[in-house]
Design goal:
Structural class: mainly alpha
Radius of gyration: 14 Å
Helix content: 55-70%
Number of helices: 4
Order of helices and strands: HHHH
């Protein structure tokens, strides 16, 4: 475990999902918004009032990715 990992608390699936959205949005901004695919993905990842993404299938994909990572 790295020093950075020791300093960072564990993330819930929801907080990790939000972090991933922020990461991708920052990437898109650095890219100058040139990627239409990334813009569409970010639109689909946008949270609804319940915190889940507009495209609920992406939430299920996210949970599967967490399980594969574990």
């Amino acid at each position: 475990m790295t020093a950075l990992e020791m300093e960072m608390p564990s993330l819930t699936a929801e907080r990790g999902f939000a972090a991933m959205r922020h990461f991708l949005d920052a990437y898109r901004e650095r890219d100058g918004g040139q990627s239409d695919d990334l813009a569409m993905l970010l639109s689909s990842l946008a949270p609804k009032s319940d915190g889940k993404p507009v495209d609920i299938a992406l939430w299920n994909d996210w949970l599967e990715a967490i399980e594969r990572t574990r």
